[in-house]
Specification:
152 residues, Elongation Factor Tu (Ef-tu), domain 3, 9-stranded mixed β-sheet
C-alpha cells in the first residue's frame, strides 16, 4: 500500500471525551458510524497534509553513537529517519547500516552526482539520499533500517 492514495479526515473530540481514552470516546464512535454506512467525509474535515509514518522506536545512545532507524521512504527513495538535529550535531558522521554517509549537508549540491548525503529534510528529520538517485535502492534499505550518527 506504500504510495497508495490516502483519504483521511480529522476527528474533533467531543466535549465529554476523556484525554486518555480516544479509542472509546473518539475512534469507536467513528468506526460505528463508518460501519453503519456513513461516508468518511461526514466524520470530519478533510486532512490535507501529507500523512507521516511514525516509528515506535526512539533514537538511543550506544556510547558515542546515536542509533536511529528509517521511518519512511519517500517516492524518490530518500530515507527519512527518526533522527533530528537535536540529537545529531553538525560534526557527527552518519552511517546507514555499515556504510559511511558522512556529515550533515545543507543541499544536494554539496556532493557530486551519485554520492550519498545526509541532510535535514523539510519535516525536521535527518534524511539520507543519493544525489540524482535512490538511497533506498542503492543501500537496499527500507523502513526499520538502522542509521547511526557517530559523535566522536
Amino acid at each position: 500500500m506504500h504510495g497508495a492514495p490516502v483519504e483521511a479526515v480529522t476527528l474533533a473530540p467531543p466535549p465529554q471525551a476523556s484525554p486518555t481514552f480516544h479509542g472509546r470516546d473518539i475512534f469507536a464512535p467513528a468506526a460505528a458510524r463508518l460501519a453503519s454506512g456513513e461516508p468518511l467525509t461526514s466524520l470530519g474535515a478533510a486532512y490535507t497534509s501529507i500523512p507521516r509514518r511514525v516509528s515506535g522506536a526512539l533514537p538511543h545512545h550506544e556510547g558515542k553513537v546515536v542509533v536511529g532507524e528509517v521511518i519512511y521512504v519517500d517516492r524518490y527513495g530518500n530515507l527519512v529517519t527518526n533522527l533530528t538535529p537535536e540529537v545529531v550535531p553538525a560534526y557527527a558522521v552518519l552511517e546507514a547500516e555499515s556504510l559511511v554517509v558522512g556529515p550533515l549537508r545543507s543541499t544536494f549540491g554539496d556532493v557530486p552526482t551519485g554520492a550519498l548525503l545526509a541532510y535535514v529534510g523539510s519535516g525536521g528529520h535527518v534524511e539520507i539520499a543519493v544525489r540524482d538517485g535512490s538511497a533506498a535502492r542503492r543501500l537496499g534499505l527500507g523502513v526499520g533500517g538502522r542509521v547511526r550518527a557517530r559523535l566522536g
